Amino acid sequence: MKSALTLKTWTTIWLVGFTIAAAGFAAVFLYEEKELNHQLESQFNMKFKALSHSLESVESLMTSTRLFLENSNSADQLQFQNYLKNRTGIDSIIQSLLCYL
Fold it and tell me: Is the pLDDT assigned to residue 58 strictly greater than 90?
């Protein structure tokens, strides 16, 4: 049983099919790579903004604490603890910090 298509036709079909498959693979690969880079960049930017905000908050807290200590006439530990609690809204960490003072 002989095939109706010649070797040249089969070769052309295989080459066209392979070219289409390779082009499809390359398109999907490039799209996925671009999407992953975009996700990575977005996550990096979000983390960078969060870190920047945290550093700004710490800097603000340090500045206001310095001003509190400079302007208060020998404030005691309870006044300082209340100041930090009111300033930060956090009470659990303050106890551990004050243990080192």
Answer: no
